Amino acid sequence: MKIERVKAGLSIKRSVDAGTEDQQKTVRAIIEDVRKNGDSALFAYTEKFDGAKLYSLKVTQEEINEAYETLDDVMIKIIREAADNIASFHAKQKRETWLYSDEDGSILGQKMTPLDSAGVYVPGGTAAYPSSVLMNVMPAKTAGVDRIVMVSPPGSDGRLPAGVLVAADIAGVKDIFKVGGAQAVAALAYGTESIQAVDKITGPGNIFVALAKREVFGDVDIDMIAGPSEIAVLADETASAKEVAADMLSQAEHDRRASAVLVTTSETLAQSVAREIEEQLLSLPRSEMARASIDDYGAIYVAETINEAVETINELAPEHLEILTENALELVKDIKHAGAIFVGRYSSEPVGDYFAGPNHVLPTNGTARFSGPLSVDDFMKKSSIIMYSKQAFDKHGAKIAAFARLEGLEAHARAIEARNE
């Protein structure tokens, strides 16, 4: 890997893919087809894109039972424990309705209401992601969403991975459908004979899924348009080169467009990490994927001081940030922009990906500058409560009417004054 010095205006090389014009046209055509033809369009696209000829889209209880039989008992126990950790963490995020009363007797407040329904997209393709099931479903369940629908592309055998089905069952999902791609997003947004439309769609996917989510946004809500995974490691001379390299590769193996960056104050560590990455790639099962990521989007930067290194991290605003320095916890207060912060050598990024409890659905492409992880708040909406007393109305009515006339809205002013007649 190339090692560079930190410089002003540094910007990480990221893969920002808005899709080609042909891809956008394809997605729009798929969405329109699903809106018009419903299940028949879903069956056709599933056969075309996934090689699976289905006669029913919904996962049966028999398939779920078979998934439990297929999966090792120890693994099932691990999934249950992870689900409990995720539920426990997100329970602390839940906000309640609140009201307060002024001295004049007016009551103001905020009412918190869960969404009626949510759709969770779980990607397929090169790997199975039971963790994505838990991270998307548990916040929705904690928020109190009544109906959660999960979609995921089947294999050519017409089945979903056992781990995905077991995770969905443990999370309490009742409606699981074997459909993926833009067609699944369209089904969640507009409904078909089998799939009832939802209010919000969450979960990552390929470029066609991302474009479809962007296309249906407004008719339904979405979580975010997630890009390829990112990790930045902030390290000093106390860090282990072997551990840093392993953590960088843990993200590089996700996607050939993933980004893995080291920012360090130690030239020695920088050189050692570059060598370690090359050595570890030799035995990595997904080495071709990781190699492409490291070559195209990986980077090592050397800073003069820890303050310069922190400034660089804040410029990058990474999805995942690991702090591997002598006084790691002390630096957290200086980090302004990061989706999730992993502190110390025992907090490797996979700890958060799978088990600790905080959500792994995180802002990418520098959007950590203004957004954060998927949370319970994403599955709740706020309503303001206003109950003015007569005393308050008499005191402020004329001011309100005057404000309305300032904006040229006479009917607004008269609506106030009608109560004085």
Question: What is this structure, in a nutshell?
Answer:
It is an enzyme of class 1 (oxidoreductase). The chain has 16 helices and 14 strands.
Keywords:
421 residues, alpha/beta, Rossmann fold, six-stranded parallel sheet, five-stranded parallel sheet, 16 helices, 14 strands
Could you characterize what this model shows?
- By secondary structure, the chain is an alpha/beta fold.
- It has three domains: 3-16 and 227-356, Nitrogenase molybdenum iron protein domain (Rossmann fold, 3-Layer(aba) Sandwich), CATH 3.40.50; 21-104 and 113-222, Rossmann fold; 388-420, no CATH class.
- It is built from 16 helices and 14 strands.
- Strand 5 (147-152), helix 6 and strand 6 (175-178) form a beta-alpha-beta unit.
- The longest helix is centred in the first third of the chain and has 19 residues, at 73-91.
- 42% of the residues are buried.
- It catalyses: L-histidinol + 2 NAD(+) + H2O = L-histidine + 2 NADH + 3 H(+).
- Zn(2+) binds at residues 251, 254, 353, 412.
- This is Histidinol dehydrogenase.
- The active site is at 319 (proton acceptor), 320 (proton acceptor).
Topology pattern, helix = H, strand = E: EHHHHEEEHEHEHEHEEHEHHEHEHEHEHH
| CATH-derived topology of the largest domain | Rossmann fold
Helix coverage percent:
40-55%
Mean pLDDT: 95
Instruction: Supply the CATH architecture of the largest domain.
Output: 3-Layer(aba) Sandwich
How many DSSP H or I helices? 16
Q: Could you give the count of β-strands?
A: 14
In terms of DSSP E residues, the strand content is: 15-25%
- Strand order, sheet with most strands: 1-11-10-9-12-13
Pfam family, one: Histidinol_dh
EC number: 1.1.1.23
Protein name: Histidinol dehydrogenase
Binding site for Zn(2+): 251, 254, 353, 412
